[in-house]
Design brief:
globular; 52% helix; mainly alpha; 2 strands; single chain; 2 domains; 8 helices; two-stranded antiparallel sheet
């Protein structure tokens, strides 16, 4: 009887196909058309990695990053004459200046990731974002990931999180105009369009930031972490009794 039950379970698993490798998920592995077959993860976790750079780690909030950004800005002001800091500033300044015109977010669908990353730099330039701000965010993101004991310390997660933080500074296209109604009144109308902050464009944007700050990171990150601990206390993951937060899984639908 027990052998028959095990055979039935094995047959069901064979018919159902492979399941997602994320512990506790259990969804079938994604195999979308016209894309490489995902051998280990379901659609939800594939899309999650596209957005955040990690299959399982959530993206950092602006509040999580803020203390590190402030410490990074203070370090950059105190070390303004550092040759690596000047080299990073110069490279990003050229990147902003050579980004070209700003293309509205409505026109970016179907364009290459490299072009969309270039437009993102153009939007930052038009929003008067200083290169020092971009350097501070890049260094702060790397410092946060290094300081967080439960973080996913891989390059893709690091560059995507830095790119998303920079992308939030000037990410959309905003238009406003007046429309005349039938009774002759002028009614204001606004349009807000935002490009997707996921996929290869985040990788291209993060790679450009990391390339500019590559030499500076090894010098600045230990000092930023020390300054963060001195001004704001240790990261919550260093406090007694800390445990890794449970991973949030999608709601299972009937039939899955």
């Amino acid at each position: 009887m027990r052998k028959d039950r095990m055979n039935a379970i094995n047959h069901h698993q064979h018919q159902a196909g492979p399941r997602c490798a994320i512990l506790g998920c259990g969804r079938p592995v994604a195999a979308p058309k016209h894309r490489p077959v995902q051998q280990f993860h379901c659609v939800y976790h594939v899309q999650r990695k596209a957005r955040h750079g990690s299959h399982w780690h959530p993206g950092y909030r602006a509040a999580d990053l803020k203390p590190y950004v402030k410490c990074a800005e203070s370090w950059l002001k105190a070390n303004a004459g550092h040759p690596l800091a000047f080299a990073a500033w110069q490279e990003l300044n050229v990147k902003l200046a050579m980004a070209g015109p700003v293309d509205p977010a409505m026109n970016l669908r179907g364009r290459s990731p490299a072009y969309r990353a270039q437009v993102a730099f153009a939007r930052l330039r038009e929003a008067n974002i200083n290169p020092d701000r971009l350097i501070a965010i890049c260094l702060a993101t790397a410092a946060l990931i290094e300081d967080d004991r439960g973080s996913h310390r891989v390059r893709e997660f690091r560059i995507v999180q830095a790119a998303k933080a920079v992308h939030r500074l000037a990410s959309g296209t905003h238009r406003s105009w007046n429309i005349e109604t039938r009774d002759g009144r002028m009614v204001p109308y606004t349009l807000h369009a935002y490009p997707r902050s996921s996929g290869l464009v985040m990788r291209r944007l993060g790679e450009a930031l990391e390339k500019a700050c590559e030499g500076l990171a090894s010098v600045a990150i230990p000092a930023i972490i020390a300054a963060r601990r001195h001004r704001y206390g240790p990261h919550p993951s260093h406090l007694p009794g800390w445990r890794q937060a449970p991973m949030k899984l999608p709601t299972r639908r009937v039939g899955e």
